[in-house]
Amino acid sequence: MKPLPLHALVILVFAAMTLAQAETMPGWAQTPNPTGELSVNAGELRLDGKIGKLNLDQKSFVLNADSFTVPSGRTRPFDTPKPKTIVLNEATLLYVRGAATRKVTLTDLKAGDFAIVIGLDSGSGQPLTARALAVWDKAEGGVYSFRENSPETSVVAPPVLNPNSPPNTTVEPEPDAPDFPEGTFEDVDKKGNPVGWVLGDRQHARVVEEEGNHFLRLTNNDPTATFYLENRVGLNPAWKSVKVRVRMRAKNLKVGKQTWESARLGFIFEKGIGERIGDYPDTPKLTTDSDWVNREVVVPVPPGATLINLQPIMMLTTGTFDLDDIQVIGNPPLTTKTIRPGFPEGSFETLDDNGQPLGWELNSPQIKVVEEDGNHFLRLTNQNPQVSVFVDNYFKLDPTWKAITLRVRERAKNLKAGTQPWENARLGYTFMNATGQRVGDWPVTPDLRQDTKSWRIFTMRAEIPTGAVYIKLTPILHNTTGTLDIDDIKIEQAGT
Ligand SMILES: [Ca+2]
Ligand SMILES: [Ca+2]
């Protein structure tokens, strides 16, 4: 299950450049600006908004941003103001908007003042260090003014601090997850590079437009080559789990021999830049040609992780791989699906337009719905005893239930189980808490280690552990080869 370290396999790396390095590249020259004021350079971000809480000791304040602007000049509003911690340093140019020579100091600022901040884009959730900060408290007819009625305040006004804020407090983490606008690939600089991502080699990675929408396209025709891009997103310390969601499409895809040699949105967690932490998580991937599909995974955040390093990657895989609408969502609900009477998701009789069975998102060609004499069921196949074939599916438990009865019928052919007791074929299931951590003991599961003559019916009873919010169903060939068929899953409240 565990893929080899990405870095050990990387032959071509596009991503090692930092934005600072990229700035020195010819393609990242400063964007011309008619006024010369408020220009957004490559790698920078402009935020417009109102000043919130100030922290003079930290030389910082919270900007409640209404919009952001990228170097191409494109501006986008936020649906609701986004708090962003802004840090000032000696180099920060702080002045009255429209009058660059009228310098202001941090102590002149008050909560409620208007501000435009420009600085290097440090990524979502990270404080932004201001290169330029233009402020005003009044605008009339396009003329901006600041403290015009009381010019002396800029000299004598005491520092404005939130009275509830003790001195020397650290910069507070932002309460909400900022957007990840870089994930849409809509903001492209003059050279056609997507903002926030560095593409070193247009031959393998570029932004493509179709009907007004932009997306990332990776292409590769060398089966011995692996390459990826990187973009780091700050994690809110309150996040116990994240959902990584992406739209993907693939053409002429030929993946490598190992399961991780595929076209995927890889990601790892990091303590700091380049310091990986935790296991390699399950990641959204494509292994065969596909039209646009949504893929998502929900994974726990390893304790201590501060960054998620997103890596669109083609690993020993050839073809064309498109990615768009990458989202990182903190503490997501694992599902809104509930256990309905009769559990129609367990019969595999209803398929949607994409051929997906009702309530399931099958993510591998080794897991599909098969028909036999008019009945549909789920079939898993595996030829490689080194890997497991499985899919996770979550359902919300009725909070009044204390125990469940789980019924399922299973059938197996050419089964060769692994050497460990848990390396078998089964409908696995576990109980999860609100943030996606497993709770309680491993329940008894309907295990198969040998072929069955025909369908075999299992009935299991399990107590719902304290704190359980979801049940996770995991049809799996666990380091086991052969064919496993699953049908007629039923989950009901069990009597006590
Ligand atoms: Ca897009
Ligand atoms: Ca069925």
Q: CATH superfamily membership of the largest domain, which one?
A: Galactose-binding domain-like
Helix tally equals 3
- Approximate helicity band: under 10%
**Backbone shape:** elongated
Q: Approximately what portion of the residues adopt beta-strand conformation?
A: 35-45%
* Low-pLDDT ranges: 1-36, 150-178
What do you see in this structure?
This protein is an all-beta fold and 496 residues long. It folds into 3 domains: 6-14 and 198-330, Jelly Rolls (Sandwich); 29-156, OB fold (Dihydrolipoamide Acetyltransferase, E2P); 344-493, Jelly Rolls (Sandwich). It has 3 helices and 32 strands. The strands form 6 sheets. Strands 1, 13, 14, 16, 17, 18 and 20 form a 7-stranded mixed β-sheet that branches. Strands 24, 25, 27, 28, 29 and 31 form a 6-stranded antiparallel β-sheet that branches. The longest helix is centred in the first third of the chain and has 5 residues, at 19-23. Residues 1-36 and 150-178 have low confidence and may be disordered.
Produce the secondary structure layout.
Layout: H1 6-9, E1 12-13, H2 19-23, E2 44-55, E3 60-69, E4 75-87, E5 93-96, E6 99-103, E7 114-120, E8 128-136, E9 138-140, E10 143-145, H3 153-156, E11 205-210, E12 213-220, E13 226-228, E14 231-234, E15 241-254, E16 263-270, E17 276-277, E18 285-286, E19 290-300, E20 307-315, E21 318-330, E22 367-372, E23 375-382, E24 389-390, E25 393-396, E26 403-416, E27 425-432, E28 438-439, E29 447-448, E30 456-463, E31 470-477, E32 481-493
Parallel strand pairs: 1-13, 4-8, 5-8
Antiparallel strand pairs: 2-3, 2-7, 3-4, 5-6, 7-8, 9-10, 11-12, 12-21, 13-20, 14-20, 15-19, 15-21, 16-17, 16-18, 16-20, 22-23, 23-32, 24-31, 25-31, 26-30, 26-32, 27-28, 27-29, 27-31
